[in-house]
């Protein structure tokens, strides 16, 4: 059973090939994500990951790792604070803010941090439901 204040973290990084595949699946082929020559002329100086690709990791964590199997993802807010780049080590940090035991729900802060700098790249809050683990 998860409890208020409990934290979980998950390290990850994405490759340019994964970003390109995400662009194919979603149809978001903005060259700032996929074309190094184009991206070099932007304020980012190199391709950036889709913000939603980073945030998509939350679905993996909730459904498989924390709270895990049987979790239903009900709600998510997101703020994209800093760009994310391929082949960079990131840490997704989950902090349980509130547990609603009678509804088997939890409100969880969701953050993505650059492991080298500690900068928060993505922040938000999720509501999840799990009949067995909340």
Question: How does this model look, in words?
Answer:
The protein has helices at residues 16-26, 31-34, 36-40, 51-65; strands spanning 7-12, 72-80, 90-100, 105-114, 120-129. With 134 residues, it is of the alpha+beta class. It has a single domain (7-129), classed as Hotdog Thioesterase (Thiol Ester Dehydrase, Chain A, Roll), CATH 3.10.129. A five-stranded antiparallel beta sheet has the order 1-3-4-5-2, covered by helices on one side. A hairpin with a 5-residue loop joins strand 4 (105-114) and strand 5 (120-129).
Write the layout of secondary structure elements.
Blueprint: E1 7-12, H1 16-26, H2 31-34, H3 36-40, H4 51-65, E2 72-80, E3 90-100, E4 105-114, E5 120-129
Antiparallel strand pairs: 1-3, 2-5, 3-4, 4-5
Structure class: alpha+beta
Which word captures the global form?
elongated
Distance between the termini: 5 Å
Q: CATH class, please?
A: Alpha Beta
How is the largest sheet built, in terms of strand order? 1-3-4-5-2
How many DSSP-defined strands?
5
Q: What's the CATH superfamily, by name?
A: Hotdog Thioesterase
From the 3D coordinates, which CATH architecture would you assign?
Answer: Roll
The proportion of strand residues reads 25-35%
Indicate the radius of gyration in whole angstroms. Answer: 16 Å
Question: Can you give the helix content as a percent range?
Answer: 25-40%
How would a textbook summarize the main sheet? 5 strands, antiparallel
Low-confidence stretches: none
Order of helices and strands: EHHHHEEEE
- The tally of structural domains comes to 1
